[in-house]
Amino acid sequence: MELNWIKQSNTLCLGKEIAYYEEIDSTNTRLKAWAKEGAMEGSIVIAEEQLQGKGRLGRIWDSPKETGIWMSILVKPQIGIEKIPQITLLAGLATCEAIRKTTGLEAMIKWPNDIVVNNKKVCGILCELVNTGKDTAVIIGIGINVNSKKFPDDLPYATSLYLEGKEVYMREPIISCLLEQLEGYYIQYKKQLSLHNIIEQYKDKCINMNREVNIVSSTESYRATVKDIDVEGRLIVQKQNGIEETILAGEVSVRGLYGYI
Ligand code: ADP
Description:
Keywords: ATP-binding, Biotin, Ligase, Nucleotide-binding
GO molecular function: ATP binding; biotin--[biotin carboxyl-carrier protein] ligase activity; transferase activity
Low-confidence stretches: none
GO cellular component, one term: cytoplasm
Domain BPL/LPL catalytic: 1-190
Pfam family, one: BPL_C
Largest sheet: 7 strands, mixed
Number of domains: 2
Strand content: 25-35%
Bound molecules: adenosine-5'-diphosphate
Number of strands: 12
CATH superfamily of the largest domain: Bira Bifunctional Protein, Domain 2
């Protein structure tokens, strides 16, 4: 990968320090260790392949060699763990826009942490809080399937930019655009530690809005209609009995009635 391209991104902070690996267990795990060793805000870890890429709730993220963007970004907003989902939303919006700008594909966000194209998943995002000893930092892990030509049978809802756009894409311009978008949103977010400036844009790109979905947690599953996303980034749904529920990112998975969306 051409790291110079990424270093020349039009950002002040994100992507100015890059650790690049041919192969790594997980970019999030690596960046967590680097944060504890004193990595500065904006540092990123990129790998060509992850051997133990992570999804939410201990799930695995399939990250084969040179086909995708397997990247983690370090930011240091002074927030508690309860606000981590807001960083997930911010990163989701930035990634969605970067994919749209660089490929022309109509990427959408599946609340809270996936990007989909043509109803299939091209990207997952996993944010984790880390206490560095000096401050708190947030690791934003982003996995984008860029030039993957096929997926294992157990990932029926996975797709790549290549499969949807019928084009091989260079990864560097996508990374660069993503960092620029993310920095813009992050600067706004840091002023008031609130999503109020971007929540409307997020909702515009959110594929779940006004749709019927299944809400799946470890203990239950029920059908509901998505009504709104509040400024905290929570999903507001109406159950079939008319009662509204407010759902925190991180607690549940949202599924379509007949498939992934
Ligand atoms: P969820 O979609 O339930 O919110 P996560 O965001 O935690 O799940 O993502 C992990 C899940 O994504 C895995 O359990 C697997 O089903 C799926 N997955 C793993 N690797 C990929 C990939 N490269 N592309 C698309 N989906 C993947």
